[in-house]
Specification:
This protein is of the alpha/beta class and 326 residues long. The chain has a single domain, classed as Vaccinia Virus protein VP39 (Rossmann fold, 3-Layer(aba) Sandwich), CATH 3.40.50.150. It is 33% helix and 18% strand. It is built from 14 helices and nine strands. The longest helix has 14 residues. Bound molecules: S-adenosylmethionine. S-adenosylmethionine (SAM) binds next to α9.
Amino acid sequence: MAVAGLPSRKVETHTDISETRQKPCTFFPRKADPDSTTASSGYELMPWWMKIAAKLVLSRIPHSYQTFAKLGMFRHGAMQDSSYALAVFKTHFERSEFPGKHGGYTCLELGVGDSVASALIARSFGANKTYLLDSGRYAIEDVSVYKNIVQSWQQAQLEIQDLDNVASFDELLRRVKCEYLTDGLSSLRTIPDNSVDFVWSQAVLEHIRIGEFDETLSELLRITTPGAALSHRVDYKDHLGGALDNHRFPSRVWEADWMAGSGFYTNRISQPDMIRRFEKAGFTVEVLLTNTWDVVPTPRPKMASEFSQIPDEELLVSGSDFLLSR
Ligand SMILES: C[S@@+](CC[C@H](N)C(=O)[O-])C[C@H]1O[C@@H](n2cnc3c(N)ncnc32)[C@H](O)[C@@H]1O
């Protein structure tokens, strides 16, 4: 079924992409659905310090990301799962109002992870051009994977670009008018001013290196059009076991390249600090959802002293949804 203009969008997705469906970047074998396996996988049963030790060692083994990914050993999220990719796009799209939403807009997903499926979805939801941005070339490039994804969406009644005659990854990107940019902030700097109407990210802002965070926001402000919408899901839990064990380390250790480059980095920016940074960059901020723990999940005396002044209420926030406008 070839797409012409906008789809009927009859498809209803029931994939929950909030708290439990967020897929951390992971570095160990998982089965196809991490939700059903996390409790039983050896990695998930390891204590936080053992995960750090293992990742520090494994990240130093020379490898290509795709080699480890093929072995199921290193994943950036869950975008290779067709229902997850669709649910992520629809969630951010449906709550955002922006120029050209009903056809002919330019959009950008920050931190796409393991697939470029979002570009196919965006095209079917009226995008004229899609930028998919990441800090590395992590997306699956095997076109047959996307053909299978498209088939599953078509079975769910989504009008989507036909990929039957697409022979290469580059042709796929051209077909859905997508630019796949893989050099993080440097790539963001290449996008023209006032050119993007809709930006979204899912479990990404917390992974941006703290030293690049504010400039990333400034760049997002620069490239977006007046009236643009930016929808973000942020996961404040550490990516070691879903607590705040990342707060045990002083910044001089946590932010060192040998630590931050080992596959479990999160920038430890709290929700109020993130809001301050959004506003300082020039965005108007709406907090759509805040998830909280009942108790701070890591003992406060175990945290580095630089976190001692942060009130419990800040540390109790485990996730939030933001809608930014400019
Ligand atoms: C937890 S994964 C989430 C992937 C995807 N959004 C999902 O929901 O499956 C975080 C992603 O953010 C990307 N990332 C980290 N820093 C980034 C940056 N400065 N710019 C763009 N992407 C970045 C990582 O490479 C990774 O793909």
